Amino acid sequence: GRWYHKELLDKRGAEILQTDALVCGGITEWRRIAALAAGYGVTVSPHWFHDAHAPLVAATPNARYVEFFPDDQVLNFRKLIDNQLKVKYGDLVLHQTPGLGFKFDEKVVAEYALNQASPWTVIES
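-> structure tokens emitted (125 positions)
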């Protein structure tokens, strides 16, 4: 979260933050981290999942780049969403709808979901 990032920034430990909104505590926390970084003159360029991060970068003054992975080169969350970003002339084209512009495809998510009744196996000795 942001307190780890504040400590890193206080120690001048980074010139670019590659904070991932899906790992750091969500979109709101990512935006707080980006605002904190701006106060230190530090750029944010988020890590991975460009479908989630591209709209955030577009709305963040100190964000520069979106890390992009083609579908066949990475473990792929894009299979789980209904409306993927398109690439045109080397640029990601943002959705013209509110929010991130996609929803999770419940049928596909269900295919990969663990058994909801028993997500853990308990072994008693």
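The beta strands are 16-17, 43-44, 86-88, 91-93.
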